[in-house]
Design goal:
The strands form 4 sheets. The protein has a 5-stranded mixed barrel. A 5-stranded antiparallel β-sheet has the order 8-7-6-9-10, with no helix packed on it. It has 4 helices and 17 strands. By secondary structure, it is mostly beta strands.
């Protein structure tokens, strides 16, 4: 069974007209989703199911809450966001109203046992960006379970912060780079094309838009695509993250070089652009970024 990031599969979001419908969902063991209305003082999550209100007790909020390996902020941060759960049972509240008792933890355990445990290095899956830190992007890889994409695995073109490449809530495709007993590490750059894949979109003599990524004494590195950058001649008064128009002087596959000239600079910070994926299969054994004739070979061997 495949498990999706929370909020990805809209078919799981249901409103129930009667409590009997919800009881049937419990009997069938259905995985459901709903938006969290509030997180109370005991860090229980409350959701609206239509016919009744549901509550996810704190210890059922996530795998790791019970033993302290996951902090309560993981629950607080779910307010106004979709979470998955199954129905454990029903009880009456202090006003004698029916209350559905739910478990997100149960879905996460199923996700780990039935889906994530079966993944192998090189597998490509759907994910959703949950939050960004300077060192990398945290992603939901299924049922609200988080994993990390280190910043150097987001693209070949270097960035100073993941927010330059991704936005929170964005749906992306990722490849499993490393699998350990207690965590998984993913990568994005292998899916964004080789040097040749990206260079095909440009020709000498064109003037195109780029983003300043690094300013050195000998020149300015300008990103043309997430997996492609060129070197422009030195120029004053530029800043990292700035949008520029560049003239493409030459493209040299054997050296993986694109020579540029900055034509015009714009006083604005570039926003993350939509990602283009060059690999559509569900598994990758080997990825070679560099052209065959290049003296420098850059690759990822997922079998190692």
């Amino acid at each position: 069974m495949k498990f999706y990031p929370e909020g990805k599969n809209q078919e799981l979001s249901k409103q129930f007209d009667t409590i009997d419908e919800l009881k049937e969902a419990m009997i069938q063991g259905e995985i459901l989703e709903s938006r969290v209305l509030l997180c109370d003082r005991e860090h229980n999550l409350h959701v609206d199911l239509g016919a009744v209100r549901g509550i996810i007790p704190r210890v059922e909020g996530a795998v790791g809450i019970d033993d302290g390996s996951v902090r309560d902020i993981a629950l607080i941060s779910k307010v106004n966001k979709n979470v998955c759960f199954t129905v454990l049972g029903f009880q009456r509240d202090i006003y004698n109203n029916n209350l559905a008792i739910l478990s997100r933890r149960a879905v996460q355990l199923r996700c780990i046992n039935e889906y994530l445990s079966k993944l192998t290095v090189g597998d490509i899956i759907d994910a959703r960006v949950t939050h960004l830190e300077k060192f990398g992007a945290f992603i939901d890889i299924g049922a609200g379970i988080n994993a990390l994409i280190p910043i150097d695995m987001l693209s070949v073109s270097r960035i100073s912060h993941p927010e330059e490449r991704l936005t929170e809530g964005q749906s992306i495709r990722v490849v499993l780079r490393k699998k350990e007993p207690d965590k998984m590490t993913f990568s994005l750059k292998e899916l964004l094309g080789t040097w040749e894949d990206n260079a095909k979109g440009f020709s000498p003599g064109e003037t195109v838009t780029g983003i300043v990524r690094s300013i050195e004494d000998y020149g300015i590195f300008v990103e043309l695509a997430p997996n492609l950058a060129g070197l422009a001649e030195p120029q004053d008064n530029l800043f990292i993250g700035q949008q520029v128009a560049v003239y493409v002087k030459s493209i040299i596959p054997s050296k993986m070089k694109i020579k540029l000239v900055v034509v015009e600079a714009f006083n604005e910070i570039a926003k993350p652009s939509p990602l283009t994926y060059y690999y559509g299969s569900s598994h990758m054994d080997f990825w070679q970024y560099s052209p065959a004739e290049s003296q420098k070979q850059i690759y990822t061997d997922f079998s190692e």
